[in-house]
Amino acid sequence: MHITVIGVGHVGLVSAAAFAKWGHQVVGYDDDASKIARMQAGEAWFYEPGLDELMAEGVEAARLSFTGDPDEALAEAEVVFVCVGTPPLPGGGPNLSYVEAVGRSVVEHARRDLLLVEKSTVPANTGKRLEQVIDREAERLGTAHRIEVASNPEFLKEGAAVQDTLHPDRVVYGTSSDWSRDLLRQVYAPLVAEDELPVVETDVPTAELIKHASNAFLATRISFINAVSQICDRVGADVRVVAEGMGHDVRIGHRFLQAGLGYGGSCFPKDVDAFAHLASQVGYDFGLLDEVREINVGQRRAVLDKLEGELWHLSGKTIAVLGAAFKPGTDDLRESPAVHLANDLADAGADVRVHDPVALGNLAEEQPHLGQAMTVEEALADAHAVVVATDWPEYVDITPEMYRDRLAYPIVIDARNIHDPEKMLAAGLHYYAMGRQSIIR
Ligand code: UDX
After folding, report:
1. CATH code at 400?
2. Which domain holds residue 174?
3. Model confidence over 97-123: pLDDT tens digits?
4. pTM to 2 decimals?
């Protein structure tokens, strides 16, 4: 099939490369010329394991190309995926103006009947608004091509985006006619045949809602276990064992029950806000989601409390922060709890030294006021305390002796619960974790 992907961010670029792998003829379009130039040279513009190889495979097979020219992008398109950003607006809802602009542009540049598929995360009923835009624009321009709207949400995680896209848990699409459903069946036929995947075929608003409900539910799980971690600290229990014990119940399961500094990234914070916003727009008070947000911010507050408990005033103290990315395996800093914490510390007057294995370049660009350390050793040297803020595997190997010998005061706040508390305590460190007070006592 001839597929065009509009917007080559994390979702768009990985999806484009995957469609090409499944045998489709794919064009990636973006209006950012510098991104297109890098991808035409065969290089992804962001870090994602396995993506360069997947892109190279598509380009070598002449099934994947990139362009910044909308006419060229849509010349042969049968199915067009909308993967542009939907950044949050100050009021909590997402900014859908880029999605709308794609709707208008597709009417102008379409050369045949086509299906426009929302892959960007959008609130329920965005499809209806898009149809309106398309109809109006078609009338204005006097074009006669059939353009229908469908929803096909993407569930990939950053850092595992290639794996998640090539081997998803399920495929979901919402359509409004047999014609558009059959087109999406053809797009996913190679994947579904190979993996015998569950496929959810539904209407457009239901598909849109599945995405928001999934992300809001996962964020709720994380906030739930983080709230439990607060209770664990107060009653002297170990949240990791509580989560393990809960997870053996197959109805609960083990994943996304890791307590720590809370969730971040480009999806969970934005989608929780957008879902709450949609709920209030349609007259439902989804107060649970407000709590989910509060608990998430509260985890940072808990780290500051632990630091102040040890150091009294943070002003003038040097604090090492290990990790800047919102999770391991990515250089993405969007809504990173580690970056928020570093800023909270800086606001409290601390001299912050941030280390990250891959995200320091982005940190220098986006948060130039924060101090940086090129190595863990440099971050720890004579610092008054250290906070482990991102659970990078390389930090697991830091020994209690490394902390003790380098820090000015032996204070370690393990905000991602990566260390063995017994070893840390045996070495004489003032060690704190999140919800593991039973061991620390
Ligand atoms: C998420 C969804 O998982 C994915 O399905 C969706 O398409 C996009 O949003 P992503 O933002 O890439 O993916 O990261 P994810 O691995 O889900 O982690 C999100 C945040 O939650 C990270 O900050 C992570 O550290 C945190 N997290 C995750 C926890 O604090 N505890 C957990 O148990 C799991």
Report:
1. 3.40.50.720
2. 2-201
3. 999 999 999 999 999 999 999 999 999
4. 0.93
